[in-house]
Write a structure and sequence with these properties.
365 residues, five-stranded antiparallel beta sheet
Length: 365
């Protein structure tokens, strides 16, 4: 693995994370589901998938991130809200659900081939301006995106978000001030996504089209994924992240690796003799990549995404998973989930984990 101690070596990079959370209850790995007032039944996020595209930066607050979320919902209500926290105001757009099918199938086939060959081969390693608090809740933007009415709001006063949800016709989030207050103190915003025509059928899972949120996580090298709101639910849950990154993601080499947050490695790409060592894989042109060309015909939607967002860039795929996470323990986390580049020097403190960085709360009380 090439030494990435200095960000000049990874000044422009992209990460894609796909996560899956399967659980019952009211809150999940990417936010929380809110039922309409008067609804006594359950609204369950039966499956949740996410894709994150992250761009590191050599300058403070220069990193950007695309978070693409897709959920399947099981319940009888014909409308509900979906609340997701972000470090800054996101721009919102629609994406294609086929992205998730293709990446899932790619990893499954790679794992099947590895089992036949006996495992992994050796590898080279592969601000927004703050709104003036003129009201308990600031509505920063609102627009229709596909089937969704998306409002981005910032809570300025304790309890105001629940009152705003009530005014919008949805139930409040009971006993949630510790979590909502965490985001309010950090000046985070909430994307409140109203779904009014999902046509949910009793006993069946309804897949909703994905949304892409583009935002600034507020630092240089920290990859943001919302987790603390998951602590509002009752049942244990699983998280499955597919990470496409210019280099590997920090695992156990330092205290800032994902293994110290309850995740473990399931799969990651490697370099064959036909590959350029430490060169990554050409996801925007898989037919010309020696590692991906066998799978190129099965990745048309993924290829289009990378051609549209980041043509010519290369990445390694790392799949990490966490099983049966305890919501109470996640709720007690001092911050959300932050992932970092694989720095070869174990003494290296990621820029965003340092005091004053956007991820510092996770490591410094």
């Amino acid at each position: 693995m090439r030494d990435s101690r200095e960000l000049r070596h990874v000044a422009w990079c992209t990460v894609v994370v796909m996560g899956s959370v399967v659980c019952a209850g009211g809150a999940f790995g990417d936010g929380t589901m809110v039922a309409p007032k008067g609804w006594d039944g359950s609204i369950e996020e039966f499956t949740q998938d996410a894709i994150i595209i992250f761009h590191a930066s050599e300058t403070p607050r220069g990193a950007t991130e695309d978070l693409i979320l897709k959920i399947g919902v099981k319940g009888g209500a014909d409308r509900f809200a979906w609340v997701v926290p972000f470090p800054s105001k996101p721009e919102v757009a629609k994406e294609d659900a086929k992205l998730f099918d293709e990446v899932y199938a790619y990893v499954a086939q790679r794992k099947h081939g590895m089992r036949r060959k006996g495992g992994l081969s050796k590898s080279y390693g592969a601000k927004d301006a703050a709104a003036t608090p003129e009201a308990p809740v600031d509505v920063l933007s609102r627009k229709i995106v596909g089937k969704y009415d998306v409002a981005v709001v910032r809570e300025n006063v304790a309890g105001a978000l629940n009152k705003w949800l009530d005014t919008e016709g949805y139930q409040s989030l009971p006993d949630a001030e510790d979590v909502i207050g965490f985001y309010r103190k950090k000046r985070y915003v909430f994307a409140c996504i109203k779904v009014s025509d999902a046509e949910l059928q009793k006993g069946r899972v309804t897949d909703l089209h994905p949304l892409r949120f583009t935002f600034k996580p507020g630092g240089r090298d920290g990859i943001y994924f919302p987790m603390k709101m998951t602590g509002l639910q009752k049942e244990r849950f699983d998280v499955n992240l597919y990470v496409f990154y210019r280099y590997w993601v920090n695992d156990h080499k330092s205290r800032y690796g994902y293994e110290h947050r309850g995740f473990s490695l399931y799969y990651r790409d490697w370099d064959t003799r036909a590959c350029v060592a430490n060169g990554g894989k050409a996801w925007s042109a898989p037919a010309r990549d020696p590692f991906l060309k066998t799978y190129a015909g099965q990745l048309p939607t993924v290829t289009k995404l990378f051609q549209k967002r980041h043509p010519g860039a290369t990445y390694y795929l790392t799949n990490i998973r966490a099983r049966r996470l305890n919501p109470e323990e996640v709720r007690a986390w001092t911050d959300d989930l932050w992932l970092f580049p694989y720095y070869t020097d174990p003494r290296m403190v990621p820029f965003d984990a340092r005091p004053g960085g956007p991820a510092a709360t996770a490591y410094h009380r």
